[in-house]
Amino acid sequence: MMQLKLPSRHLVDNDKTEHQWNLWLSSIGAGKVALLYVYENGSTIKTFPMLASFKRACIDPVATDRAGAASDVTLQEFADRLQQRWGSTFQGAAILWRMWANEMVRSLSRSTWEVAIEQPPPGVVARLFRLAEASLEQQISGISRSANLALYCVNAAIAANNQLLQDWESFGARITENGKCLVARKDVIQSFIDDVLLPRDVADPMERMENIPDVDHV
After folding, report:
1. Quick check: is 8 in a domain?
2. Which terminal CB of the chain, N or C, has fewer other CB atoms within 10 Å?
3. Each residue's pLDDT tens digit, 41-99
4. What's the 3-state SS for 182-199?
5. What is the DSSP letter of 11?
6. Facing residues of 4 across strands?
7. 128, 91 in Cβ contact below 8 A?
8. Residue-range definition of the domain harbouring residue 27
């Protein structure tokens, strides 16, 4: 839990909207310092006796040995709960379940045990277990479904590629035929041009006409 406190020892209410926080920041003014307090176990625990009582009730194992660690009874109880939760997924000797329980109890407070039970085993322990038969069958079935799906996708891609190749060949044939049509049209136009042009060896009649003087209008 985190809470802001002003130099006047006034605790700031945490239940503010974003707009209210903006107004609060504007109201404290420049140069003022607000202290941020971080409470590991909440702000209601104010004394060491209260903290000790809280740890006994919520954090420390119910039963401990002389060194203060979780007792064998606590470990076995935790191991039984782990096996009950994960027995259909993992298989292993009883010592492996106790190793898993020891990892959880040693590194976590009792307040987090319920959440820890729902988590898969840590890597150092997971590699020692083997998958249960039902879980193994499910995993193989899942792998088979994934492989079949991948094969279906590849086959679909191959079919699409073959169709694209056929379309490309068909498109190429159309381009070739279109080129032949253009050549034929060119030949037709060229023939038309050749028919329209006058022969170059035809004599100009104007050059052979005799220029007779005009004697009637003199």
Report:
1. yes
2. C
3. 666 666 667 666 655 555 555 555 554 455 677 778 888 888 888 877 888 888 888 88
4. HHHHHHHHHHHHHHHCCC
5. B
6. 36
7. no
8. 2-38
